[in-house]
């Protein structure tokens, strides 16, 4: 697939056909994705391909805890877990999480069926190998993840190249300790994401909704002039 097309049309896919994703496909995807950049080229990631049905169900149940909290906060008009937010409003919204479960008989979406996605890959990060330049700042840190998520995105792009779709999810990070324990991760590792992959069901939306360049770009100052054409 041509690069421009891949970059502008690779959206989140959460519905899959029953067609399996083979180990060979996952291996080929990771073999491409591993060329992602990382701070100091430390490549501080590890992937765990989750196949065991019981482990998958456990991860699904852990995912749903955060998922319903997310839906409750979004329904209350909040940006869920924004580093800067109204914590009181957030706590109030979370009390409505149980109400976000689908009604009996409604199968729900990918979250409720996470155990059945064709491929499920956990992405772990080695905290001893992350060059987190902003570690000591008095604000929420973000640089460490920047050494891991390009790899996650590469997994989606490499999957797309094989006709697969998927989504990077972070909901399981709400239950990080339980997830790390479930997969036997040693101390010093963090959970960065769980990536679902599969053959897309239906035709993905042809147009992704993204802000235009002028909505997030200026020259010299935050409130500076627009970039020229
Ligand atoms: C860091 C990150 C975390 C995300 N976490 C989740 C998640 O936990 N669950 C989920 O369903 N989608 C998750 N997504 C997918 C986003 O919701 C999706 O990329 C975004 O809404 C754009 O969707 P689109 O590509 O279909 O337009 C995540 C994406 C990123 C980049």
The CATH homologous superfamily of the domain at 3-53 and 113-200: NADH Oxidase
Choose one word for the global shape: globular
Query: In which order are the strands of the major sheet placed?
Result: 1-2-4-3
The N- to C-terminal Cα distance equals: 28 Å
Radius of gyration: 19 Å
Query: Helical region count?
Result: 6
Low-confidence stretches: none
Architecture (CATH level 2) name of the domain at 3-53 and 113-200: 3-Layer(aba) Sandwich
Which percent range describes the beta-strand content? Answer: 5-15%
Q: What structural class do helix, strand and pairing data support?
A: alpha+beta
Helix content: 25-40%
Q: What ligand species are in this complex?
A: flavin mononucleotide
Query: Major sheet: size, sense and barrel closure?
Result: 4 strands, antiparallel
CATH topology of the domain at 3-53 and 113-200: NADH Oxidase
What is the strand tally? 4
Q: What would CATH call the class of the domain at 3-53 and 113-200? A: Alpha Beta
Mean pLDDT: 97
What is the chain-wise order of helices and strands? HHEHHEHEHE
Q: How would you characterize this protein structure?
A:
With 229 residues, the protein is an alpha+beta fold. The chain has a domain at 3-53 and 113-200: NADH Oxidase, CATH 3.40.109. It is 30% helix and 12% strand. The protein contains six helices and four strands, in the order ααβααβαβαβ. Strands 1-2-4-3 form a four-stranded antiparallel β-sheet. Helix 2 (23-33) packs across helix 5 (149-161). The radius of gyration is 19 Å and the shape is globular. It binds flavin mononucleotide (FMN).
């Amino acid at each position: 697939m041509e690069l421009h097309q891949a970059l502008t049309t690779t959206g989140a896919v959460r519905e899959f056909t029953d067609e399996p994703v083979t180990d060979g496909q996952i291996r080929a995807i990771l073999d491409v994705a591993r060329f992602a950049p990382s701070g100091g080229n430390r490549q501080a990631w590890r992937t765990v391909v989750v196949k065991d049905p019981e482990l998958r169900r456990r991860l699904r149940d852990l995912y749903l805890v955060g998922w319903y909290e997310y839906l409750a906060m979004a329904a209350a008009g909040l940006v869920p877990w924004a580093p800067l937010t109204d914590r009181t409003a957030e706590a109030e919204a979370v009390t409505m999480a149980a109400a976000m479960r689908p009604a009996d008989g409604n199968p729900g979406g990918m979250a409720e069926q996470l155990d059945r996605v064709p491929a499920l890959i956990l992405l772990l990060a080695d905290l001893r190998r992350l060059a987190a330049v902003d570690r000591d700042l008095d604000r929420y840190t973000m640089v460490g993840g920047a050494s891991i998520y390009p790899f996650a995105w590469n997994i989606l792009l490499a999957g797309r190249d094989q006709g697969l779709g998927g989504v990077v999810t972070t909901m399981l990070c709400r239950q990080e300790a339980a997830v790390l324990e479930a997969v036997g991760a040693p101390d010093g590792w963090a959970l960065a994401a769980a990536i679902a992959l599969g053959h897309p069901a239906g035709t993905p939306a042809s147009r992704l909704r993204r802000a235009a360049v002028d909505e997030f770009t200026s020259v010299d100052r935050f409130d500076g002039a627009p970039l020229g054409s």
